[in-house]
């Protein structure tokens, strides 16, 4: 939950992390207070940010031109480095490779390792000339069944949705939003979606939606216009030929926790995972309506698959915590296990040593 409060309004206020031991105490308190139906399947993910003022939004959403040209940027990168991308078949893998090399994407990094999250919360901006400020560690509490694997159809849909032009994305969301509003699927202005429990009922709703979108598709084709939904179907079928042109409309308005393939050393070293959504531009909910929703949230009811807590790391404690983490082998070199980072670590190490020639 935001502001470090318990998700059910119980127990002590969780606020500051002053050492690794206080981090572990807070994690245990969060696990104890978070009351999922299945205690055995509890999971927690973490994201550290070295400035408290940052929002939980993905890199592509931080600049308007990047947001407008999301798919174009990926296409440009593939055009310039086709051999690198030819090794991977899925849109998700393409986005992971692009993000790994610095491209802005809608995928927000999180980690299963709390020490990794704490490391990034203790980042030092003094080398950039910035005044050190407090960091923040987000703790996302969820259950195992809410985490999507890398080959999930829902994840494929969102990953390929991100390849579309911005006008195409808006058209799909607009048509879907109008359809869901008529079906009374939205429960408030935050675009929450009630999740039904009747499998037959949901199956019928999905079929009705796809019939609706297919009718729009046929109207466009009859008028000589291409179908944006048809374009999305085509993208998904490129990686999943069995795909049957059936999309659960709620998937376009949900947030997903994605467990990717551990293709890259950095993702493995950081125990990486991601948050992603076709609709949501941010993954925290600070407005009154959303905050109240999050307090009452249960995983079977809404479109957001987690509760979250926000813990502060005081600026004055960052350096001492970084030293603790180094003693636990959590450093930039171990979290970014590329040759360049190892070289930087060696240069830094010898710079501080008094070694005779």
Helix count equals 15
Largest sheet, in brief, is: 4 strands, mixed
* Strands, total number: 7
The number of domains is 2
For the record, give the distance between the C-alpha atoms at the N and C termini, rounded to a whole number. 55 Å
Topology as a string of helices (H) and strands (E): HEHHHHEHEEHHHHEHEHEHHH
Helix content range: 40-55%
Low-pLDDT windows of residues: 1-13, 287-301
List the quaternary state of the chains. Answer: single chain
Strand content: 5-15%
* Helix-strand makeup class: alpha+beta
Mean pLDDT rating: 80
Q: In angstroms, what is the radius of gyration?
A: 22 Å
Shape: globular
| Major β-sheet strand ordering | 2-6-5-4
Question: Could you explain how this protein is built, in words?
Answer:
By secondary structure, this protein is of the alpha+beta class. The chain has two domains: 1-58 and 106-150 and 260-357, no CATH class; 155-254, no CATH class. 43% of the residues lie in helices and 12% in strands. It has 15 helices and seven strands. The chain has helices spanning 20-33, 64-68, 70-80, 82-85, 91-100, 114-121, 153-161, 166-182, 199-222, 228-239, 265-269, 288-296, 318-327, 332-335, 339-351; strands spanning 42-49, 108-111, 135-143, 147-149, 255-259, 272-277, 307-313. The protein has a four-stranded mixed β-sheet. Helix 6 (114-121) packs antiparallel against helix 13 (318-327). Mean pLDDT is 80; it is low at 1-13 and 287-301.
């Amino acid at each position: 939950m935001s502001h470090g409060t318990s998700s059910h309004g119980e127990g002590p206020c969780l606020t500051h992390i002053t050492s690794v031991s206080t981090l572990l105490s807070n994690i245990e308190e969060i696990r104890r207070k978070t009351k999922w139906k299945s205690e055995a399947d509890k999971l927690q993910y973490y994201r550290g940010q070295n400035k408290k003022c940052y929002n939980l939004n993905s890199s592509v959403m931080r600049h308007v031109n990047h947001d407008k040209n999301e798919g174009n940027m990926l296409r440009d990168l593939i055009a310039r480095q086709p051999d690198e991308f030819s090794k991977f078949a899925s849109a998700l893998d393409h986005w992971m490779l692009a993000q790994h090399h610095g491209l802005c994407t809608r995928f927000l990094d999180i980690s299963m390792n709390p020490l990794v999250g704490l490391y990034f919360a203790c980042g030092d901006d003094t080398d950039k000339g910035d005044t050190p400020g407090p960091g923040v560690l987000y703790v996302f509490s969820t259950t195992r069944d809410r985490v999507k694997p890398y080959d999930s159809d829902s994840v494929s849909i969102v990953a390929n949705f991100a390849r579309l032009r911005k006008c195409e994305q808006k058209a799909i969301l607009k048509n879907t939003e109008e359809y869901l509003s008529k079906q009374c699927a939205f429960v408030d202005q935050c675009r929450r979606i009630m999740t039904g429990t009747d499998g037959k009922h949901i199956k019928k709703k999905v079929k009705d939606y796809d019939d609706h979108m297919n009718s729009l598709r046929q109207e466009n084709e009859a008028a000589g216009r291409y179908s944006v939904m048809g374009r999305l179907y085509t993208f998904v079928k490129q990686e999943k030929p069995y795909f049957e042109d059936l999309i659960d409309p709620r998937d376009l308005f949900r947030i997903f926790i994605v467990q990717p393939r551990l293709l890259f050393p950095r993702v493995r070293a950081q125990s990486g995972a991601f948050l992603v959504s076709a609709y949501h531009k941010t993954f925290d909910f600070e407005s009154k309506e959303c905050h109240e929703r999050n307090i009452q949230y249960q995983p079977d009811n809404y479109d957001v698959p987690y509760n979250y807590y926000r813990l502060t790391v005081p600026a004055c404690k960052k350096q001492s915590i970084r030293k603790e983490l180094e003693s636990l082998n959590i450093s930039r070199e171990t979290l970014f296990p590329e040759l360049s980072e190892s070289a930087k670590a060696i240069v830094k190490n010898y710079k501080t040593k008094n070694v005779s020639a």
